[in-house]
Amino acid sequence: xxxxxxxxxxxxxxxxxxxxxxxxxxxxxxxxxxxxxxxxxxxxxxxxxxxxxxxxxxxxxxxxxxxxxxxxxxxxxxxxxxxxxxxxxxxxxxxxxxxxxxxxxxxxxxxxxxxxxxxxxxxxxxxxxxxxxxxxxxxxxxxxxxxxxxxxxxxxxxxxxxxxxxxxxxxxxxxxxxxxxxxxxxxxxxxxxxxxxxxxxxxxxxxxxxxxxxxxxxxxxxxxxxxxxxxxxxxxxxxxxxxxxxxxxxxxxxxxxxxxxxxxxxxxxxxxxxxxxxxxxxxxxxxxxxxxxxxxxxxxxxxxxxxxxxxxxxxxxxxxxxxxxxxxxxxxxxxxxxxxxxxxxxxxxxxxxxxxxxxxxxxxx
Length: 365
Ligand code: SF4
Description:
The chain is α/β, with parallel strands linked by helices. The strands form 4 sheets. An 8-stranded mixed beta sheet has the order 4-5-9-10-11-13-14-17, with helices on both faces. A 5-stranded mixed beta sheet has the order 2-1-3-8-6, with helices on one face. α8 runs parallel beside α9. The site of iron/sulfur cluster has 9 residues, from β7.
């Protein structure tokens, strides 16, 4: 991925002394640091700039997180949920996909923030994991940021991974479109860390996944973490329909399974492009040339726009067929899809979110 060079790093006073601050200082010696008493960044502070959301990605804030770190993934109303938990150690992302839902979700608070109180994060997770020892937690860190894109600068994952690798009832997923894996390679994940890549053909990456790693770079990074003992996940999501999509997606799968050992794959997810009317408005302003604005979509009961259901089902069936040829027993699930679509694609739908969560968490511990 492109090197991240923020214009400045703004540090809340009591974050000085945190390991993340020290890592940023080491990694960004040429970037000016500014110190403030209190960070209260709203888009108001960014007004006057043509592309406030894009501009927000160029300034990095380091502050304590004042709320809870661990929460249940909100999922989407009426869709089959996979019982996933999320830890938010940062907010916003240095990359800039045209379809990114953060453009809407973080519209009122777009600042690129990293949270410095790593100790509080671990204490909170520890209390929850100990209180529910009988529950198996799948925890992701890529809900409102990319899990690894800032890792060369913040070293956040390096700070938290050793704790999670020791916990018997957790699987930590790091989800990324970057190739920033260098700092992970000498850590021992003890079989409890999945590095999951969001995948698309190079044509889609070039058109709509700005500043992310190329397809080949993602796959080479996946190969490196696999060799270092990590489990892998792939999220073919959002799948984009266009003339000739089948050729590109089939070739991407061939390249994927020629590069990594599918037996190290914990799961594969599939999902099609989804957005909202509000997100489309933002996309029109920020990425007016994107082809994603031209395809036909229908409004679904959860308020999201998706391709017409028969087209989604056909795309999923096609992908499942190709994946099964290369990786016959890998776990495949659909992200944010209805029971109806599950049944048409797989011939069944999980009876409840716990069933799907357990299937995905059951990795032979
Ligand atoms: S990598 Fe993910 S979080 Fe970052 S801009 Fe793209 S979709 Fe958004």
